[in-house]
């Protein structure tokens, strides 16, 4: 079968790989119908995630038709069109039982923090992902959900990561009615976090980014007040001024370790890799949230350390909440929001490409060309 094939930093291509097969009675093999490229795939593409091995197929946001199931699988059958959460979760361990499907203790032998993730390096279990014609899906009774008849597959594929991650960012922030919410990053997750902040009762939603076309999109879509941080002298001072000197009630970091906006952070985090990515939005969030406020982090950082102003966190009494989204826990609520029209995920899809254009798609997405917000690969199109 054809699959995206990582060859080293900044190099991906399409290759022939062996067809995935049932390796365990709880597996399914899924024929991919849609597969997105995610902002966090760019962390892999840029060589920022440890133990990203040559030959890996990325892709943790996909849906497809069940082709084959193992003997123990009961809830999905061949022919079902399913959306598959990016977390690989056993459904039975201590953490899955609490709904922490992103922290499954069984699906990732390599780490004690994050669970397994499709196509996300051996740090996240070494599972091949869905930027391919076919993919093996472990624990097929736990993650995959049959796409409701009324739902557009373009909406379904965004329910595998972008929508739940943005939603959980807003949920973890504990937004109170009337709160001023700041979102750093106008990628798809930041856009969705801004949109969902209103569902939790926000009174004012502000988004910072450096790409005007993304700011234009989120200004209309969320809707939100938007600012290009390159045109703002100092983000923290700016936020103080616009909140009567108090700071925002809630700040959301929807960027992670690929951030730009501060030379020293970029040099030590992104260029020299002396820390696990450049934590610029995290600094901005900690320093522009009010005393007693909440910082919610869904941006992806590497597993090693970052320089973070912990003294300010203590002295201001800030609550920091963070996690990978627990997709399965959130799906029933999110499907309901899509059905009622509260969220329109597919509006974020700007590019639709065949699988064999995967190398171009990565380049375009990484370089923020052609107004790209969310590219989706269509393997069998
Ligand atoms: Zn993703
Ligand atoms: Zn588990």
Write the layout of secondary structure elements.
Layout: E1 2-8, E2 11-16, E3 28-36, H1 39-45, E4 62-69, E5 81-84, E6 87-88, E7 116-117, E8 134-137, E9 145-146, H2 153-158, H3 162-172, E10 180-184, H4 188-199, E11 204-209, H5 212-221, E12 225-228, H6 235-241, E13 248-253, H7 263-271, H8 280-288, E14 289-297, H9 310-316, E15 319-322, H10 327-339, E16 349-354, H11 358-366, E17 374-378
Parallel strand pairs: 10-11, 10-13, 11-12, 13-14, 14-15, 16-17
Antiparallel strand pairs: 1-2, 3-4, 3-8, 3-17, 4-5, 5-9, 6-7
Bound molecules: zinc ion (ZN) (2 copies).
Q: Which structural traits does this protein have?
A:
single chain, 381 residues, seven-stranded mixed sheet, 11 helices, binds zinc ion
